[in-house]
Amino acid sequence: MTHAIVARQAGGPEVLAYEEIERPVPGPGQLLIKVGAAGVNFIDTYKRSGTYKVDYPFTPGSEAAGTVEAAGDGVSGFVPGDRVATAEGINCYAGYALVDEDAALPVPAGVDDFTAAALPLQGITAHYLMNSTFKVEPDHTVLLHAGAGGVGLLLIQLLKARGAEVITTVSTDEKEQLALDAGADHVLRYDGFEGKVRDITSGRGADVVYDGVGKDTFDGSLAALRVRGMLVLFGAASGPVPPVDPQRLNAGGSLFLTRPTMAHYLRDAAERRWRAEEVFGAAANGSLKVRIGARYPLSQARKAHEDLEGRRTTGKVILVP
């Protein structure tokens, strides 16, 4: 037996229950992971709330790090005792979780379970956003919302290592300092940010906006772009964006709008390996600092969701079985 978080219906954080369940058994091509830490992400709240449809009863979590406990038939790349992480696990808010061998990422020496659980989803997201969705070059000016969040703090560091100018938004003085410490060139509050971006860029606008906030920032994000700039809408922390008239992109300067998701940027083993090796390698050599903003016992998953949705967290939120 093991423990897991189970939601039996869609709803608020209160639907998350800490229950005893049967320990899962790995099928062909799967690994059973003894979870050392599980990442908490906004996508988990979308699934819990019913914004994304799932089958119930439902155990959230696709991101975790831990140790291989057992391997199913046909597994050749891992053995019990290996340390792995994943952004594509199955029911990871638990003491034990399953992951397909192809989706397991080796954890390098020197990276602990908490750091390893903080990197797969948000680190790989940061990597694909700046390398593939919009290829950032050293002369680009980037506007990044929620710079003190999990993706934000990682993306600021990676963008500065690339040589870009980074403008970011935050909501508090504490978060402003975190963004500055990560290397941001300009840190703004959300109120009127689009005009301030215009001022910083001498009226030109940002080359790209990375927006994980959604509804509350969408209009301003479009207004902050240069002619032929791109808005990359990769999350909806403030709620989903209402339907958009494509004519707005014309009026704004022949703008580009995209809504990426990680699954489309992990299309094969080579792409997965490229992204994971660069992100985990940067953490292992110390060039990428990972902030664990909050750790909760697994039994307090409800509190973790409340704090994440209430914008009371910075960096990465972790559950510990």
Structure explained in plain terms:
30% of the residues lie in helices and 26% in strands. It has 321 residues and is α/β, with parallel strands linked by helices. The chain folds into two domains: 2-119 and 290-320, Medium-chain alcohol dehydrogenases, catalytic domain (Quinone Oxidoreductase, Chain A, domain 1, Alpha-Beta Complex), CATH 3.90.180.10; 122-262, NAD(P)-binding Rossmann-like Domain (Rossmann fold, 3-Layer(aba) Sandwich), CATH 3.40.50. Strands 3, 4, 5, 6, 7, 14 and 15 form a seven-stranded mixed beta sheet that branches. The protein has a six-stranded parallel beta sheet with strand order 10-9-8-11-12-13, sandwiched between helices. Helix 10 links the parallel strand 14 (292-297) and strand 15 (316-320). Helix 3 (120-133) crosses helix 4 and helix 3 packs across helix 9 (269-284). The mean pLDDT is 96.
Strand and helix map with partners:
Elements: E1 2-7, E2 16-21, E3 30-40, H1 42-49, E4 64-71, E5 83-86, E6 96-100, E7 105-106, H2 113-118, H3 120-133, E8 141-144, H4 150-162, E9 165-170, H5 173-182, E10 186-189, H6 193-200, E11 206-211, H7 218-223, E12 225-233, H8 247-251, E13 256-258, H9 269-284, E14 292-297, H10 301-309, E15 316-320
Helix pairs in contact: 3-4, 3-9
Helical percent range? Answer: 25-40%
* Cα-atom radius of gyration: 20 Å
β-strand amount: 25-35%
CATH classification, class level of the largest domain? Alpha Beta
Order of helices and strands: EEEHEEEEHHEHEHEHEHEHEHEHE
Spatial gap, N to C terminus? 13 Å
- In CATH terms, what is the fold-level topology of the largest domain? Quinone Oxidoreductase, Chain A, domain 1
CATH homologous superfamily designation of the largest domain = Medium-chain alcohol dehydrogenases, catalytic domain
- What is the total tally of β strands? 15
Tell me the major beta sheet. Answer: 7 strands, mixed
| Low-pLDDT stretches | none
* Average of per-residue pLDDT values: 96
The CATH architecture of the largest domain: Alpha-Beta Complex
The number of helical segments is: 10
